[in-house]
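Hi support team,

I submitted a single chain yesterday and got back a structure, but I'm not sure I'm reading the token output correctly. Could someone confirm the output below corresponds to the sequence I sent? I've pasted both exactly as they appear in my results page.

Thanks,
R.
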Amino acid sequence: MEQHRARSTQHGPRRGAAPPTPLPSQARRGAGNGGGDGGAGGGGGRSSPRPAKPAAARRQGRPAGTARPAAALRRPGPPVVQAVRRLPNPRFTGLGCGLFCGAVLLALGTLDALLFGSSLVVYGVLFLPVCVLAAVWVRGVDLVTVPVVVPIAFALGLVPVAESGEGLSGRVVGLFTALATQAGWLYGGTLVAGSIVTVRKLRQMRRHAARNRPPA
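Hi R., thanks for writing in. Yes, this is the structure output for that exact sequence:
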């Protein structure tokens, strides 16, 4: 009996000992989380919920609250570039590009004959912007048609401008003479259109290669 009393008094609280100091709420939560992770002693502890990331940050793979770099923001270009972006941007097929160039150059040739006395220089100057628009507005799959369409439209627009003799043969001779004397404008406009088409084709191939590149 004496041995049993001694054991019971050993497990009880000591007399005269100071009561345990209560822990703050944050320390209790930390102890509960540590106990729950370490073993069975913290099974009743409740861990604090993690803040949820926004959906946009999860999709882009950036941590929440991270701002987008300044280089990624689109800066406004010069006024000339902004004015060009506001212009209409149609997309012609190969046939549509040919009809556009032929109709516009025929109308410009008629106006040249009425207003400027069939000046071949004025017609050649007006031919250059038509080549640029044809190369910019054609579809990506029909880029190769522009260098073929532009010379044909140039010859069509020369019909009202070229000097013509009597009869059909006179008109044909005048047309070929105008083509021979204005070959510089013809080659220059075709070269401008071909350069724009080449740049667009290279950019299209680069985008296609980047799209098909396997992720790292």
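A quick pointer for reading it: The CA atoms of residues 4 and 10 lie 10 Å apart. Let us know if anything else looks off.

Best,
Support desk
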